[in-house]
Amino acid sequence: MVMSCDYLARESGLVRAPGGSLAELVEGLLVADPPFGADGSRPQVTEAGWLTNGQRSPAMGARQAMGGLVGWSPPVENAGYQHSLFLDVELWNGPEEKRRWSCACLAAVWQLARLGVLRRRGRDVATPERVSPVLLGP
Length: 138
Fold this sequence. Notes:
It is a single chain. By secondary structure, this protein is α+β, with helices and mostly antiparallel strands. The protein has one domain. The chain contains five helices and eight strands, in the order H-H-H-E-E-E-E-E-E-H-E-E-H. The protein has helices at about 10-15, 20-30, 45-50, 105-115, 135; strands at about 50, 55, 75, 90, 90-95, 100, 120, 125. Strand 5 (about 90-95) and strand 6 (about 100) form a beta hairpin. The longest helix is centred in the C-terminal third of the chain and has 12 residues, at about 105-115. The radius of gyration is 20 Å and the shape is elongated. It starts with 11 loop residues before the first helix and ends with a helix. The model has no long low-confidence stretch (mean pLDDT about 80).
């Protein structure tokens, strides 16, 4: 049986690419979506490296302002509809000059680039290149 390889990608190629970092390009396209009633105490994704689309469950045994204990409740997705998918994902960590992008973030960047929806000034950000089957190994 002969197997073929459609794509060969390196995560590091999504961080340092000709024309600039694709991961930074995607980060710049993110739009903050704070939960209803947010007071601005949670830092922006560009400061914290964490992206969320809702509000986490309260910590078990946490106290409310008036002294009552909070029981468990499920996370709440912003604009959730019927079956909800709550997401709280780390995009990167470390200081800006030594930023380490997460695998989850780079996988999303790869999918956006592969599908051709990631653009810079209306142009493709990555150009596919043929790779010799010899380089792929047995």
